[in-house]
Amino acid sequence: MTVDRDQMGPAEGGLDRPTAPHRTRMERFWRLFQKNRMAVIGLAIFILFFLTALAGLVLTSGTDPIFDPAQIRLSEKLRPPFSMINPEVLTPAEVPTLALYILGTDDLGRDVFARMLQGAWVSLTVGFVAVGISVIIGIFMGGIAGYFGQRRIRLHQCLAASAAAAAAAALAAGLGWLAVAFGGAAAFLLLLAATDRRRRWPAVKSLSAGVITVDTLVMRVVDIMLCFPSFFLILTVVALLPASLYNIMIVIGLTSWMGTTRFVRAEFLSLREQDFVLAARALGVGNFRIIFRHMIPNAVAPVLVSATIGIATAILTEAGLSFLGFGVPPPHATWGNILSDGRRFIFDAPWLTFVPGVAILIVVLSFNLFGEGLRDALNPKLRSRT
User: Fold this and answer.
1) Residue ranges of the alpha helices (H) in 173-299?
2) Which residues have a Cβ under 8 Å from the Cβ of 301 and sit 6 or more positions away?
3) Is residue 365 a part of any domain in this protein?
4) Residue 47 pLDDT grade (very low, low, confident, very high; cuts 50, 70, 90)
5) How far is CA 10 from CA 16, 21, 308, in A?
6) 109: alpha, beta or left? (left if phi > 0; alpha if psi -120 to 50)
């Protein structure tokens, strides 16, 4: 007796046996991410904060903004939240858009709601730009340490490269005289070692004879940077520079790249011995193509986690600088200077302290929760279980 295979069920023939549905990488990521409820809440708050910051840019910018954060109404100072305006003491130009003080007013009668909107955009800009600078520097330094780590360089080359990097940092910070000094030192070291080939000078001989690996040099620079308390280093540099939003972002970025460097270096040390990297080398692919085309995409997971948490740190740092009076200068409103203005009226007008303080707490906490969720979802050990 013969049986037609088309009439056989999945258990009998085995041809129509159902298989597990194929999930894309994004689907697997979201499946793991949504298991962490706190991370999902953090993502939702992050999206809300992002939209609020964009709204703040649109609504508080221009010559005639919808919500004017700089409008002074001394007759309406220290009004509590959800207070209606007093039309008898205000001119038509001073009347707020909603004819209502949603979050009250400060000691100059400025609308706290409008200032919080503008401060949200300032915090978002500082966080993303500063972290972008630190991530770029961290990927570059960590990639060099991880991929070219065992290559040896001369001591005079190390000093010249360090002086050149310091010159670039000084130039980015607007310190032209310091950039010229460091640049001149770098050029002098290279010229000195190149011209005195017979090593007749003991100092030049010791410079040219000293040998150090690339990995050792980069990691020692990282260790030196980590020895300084970051906030006090930023505070010192900001105090020496002109007050500017751009200086704040640059300084925070230039002093917070060390963690990304360590993450990228560790990933590169593991990836450079993988088969796909060895195959690319055997095919004659250039080093930079291997780094940027093959290794960085595979090392981006810890960088994303570090960047997400770094945004929260940058926002907190900017708020601390503004609270101490070294942050973004007036007339720009930031959550830090709103908090600083309210400390004098903590009993008479507590909303001036609670509103920006709670906003900073919620935003920083949401970024941290979102970063923790990213770390769990991008963990290869957890991905293999789904």
Assistant:
1) 176-195, 202-209, 214-227, 230-240, 245-254, 258-271, 275-282, 287-289, 296-298
2) 378
3) yes
4) very high
5) 5, 17, 48
6) left
6 domain residue, yes or no = no
- The number of residues in the chain equals 386
Q: Is 223 helix (H, G, I), strand (E, B) or coil?
A: helix
Residue 319 lies in a domain: yes
**Looking at residue 159, which CATH number applies to its domain?**
1.10.3720.10
Query: How much is the pLDDT for 322?
Result: 86
- pTM for this predicted structure: 0.76
Which has more confidence, 95 or 233?
95
Q: Give the relative orientation of helices 112-147 and 245-254 as an angle to the nearest 10 degrees.
A: 30
- Tokens 């360089």 sit at which residue? 153
The crossing angle, in degrees rounded to 10, of helices 25-33 and 351-377 is 130
Tell me which residue range forms the domain holding 43.
38-70+110-383
pLDDT band at 165 (very low <50, low <70, confident <90, very high): low
Residue 223 covered by a domain: yes
Distance from C-alpha of 20 to C-alpha of 51, rounded to nearest angstrom: 38
240 or 319: which carries more pLDDT confidence?
A: 319
Tokens found for residue 310: 């770094």
Counting other chains too, the contacts that 74-80 makes at CB distance below 8 Å and 24 or more residues apart are 74/108, 74/109, 75/109, 76/101, 76/105, 76/109, 77/105, 77/106, 77/107, 77/108, 77/109, 78/104, 78/105, 78/106, 78/107, 78/345, 78/348, 78/349, 79/104, 79/105, 79/109, 80/104, 80/349, 80/351
* Integer CA distances (angstroms), 291 to 154, 171, 271, 283, 379, in order: 24, 28, 10, 15, 22
Q: Give me the number of domains the chain comprises.
A: 1
Whether 323 shows a pLDDT value over 50: the answer reads yes
pLDDT value of position 209: 47
pLDDT above 90: percentage of residues in the chain? 8
Query: Is 384 exposed, middle or buried, given 0-12, 13-18 or 19+ CB atoms closer than 10 A?
Result: exposed
